[in-house]
Write the structure tokens for this entry.
Amino acid sequence: MPTAPPSRCTDPECGNYATHRGRCDDHQPIPWAGRDDKAARYGISSGRFRTLKRLVDRRDHGCCYLCGIEQPDPELYDEDEPTTWPHELDHVIPISEGGSVEALDNLGLACTACHAAKSKAEALRANQRRHAARSRGRP
């Protein structure tokens, strides 16, 4: 089966070929841009979120609950190297699947690689649920 010829980036001033969703690599949308902040998403303040992260960090001794890797040294932080970024606070059971927002049993630290993989899997499940609901005739 023949494929369509490569198309140009949808940005009017760009002449590069599109690599994903009609845009070149330089003009891909920023993830989470325009999304609500933590207070709007979870119903808690950023200060409370930092407190929860500090409590979970102390409980888990700074280790990723998925792979067990220790938190990197803050002095080695490099903006361009994700392996040097601090661990992220993650909901073990996503809120969209019935997990608690503030329960410490539902919170854990995740390294950037594990958090990205887990978030991608959660998004896939959410999209599958949404697609299944639409095919049954519900919005």
Remarks:
- The chain is about 30% helix and 5% strand.
- The CA atoms of residues 5 and 17 lie 10 Å apart.
- Strands lie at 88-91, 107-110.
- Residues 112-135 form the longest helix (24 residues).
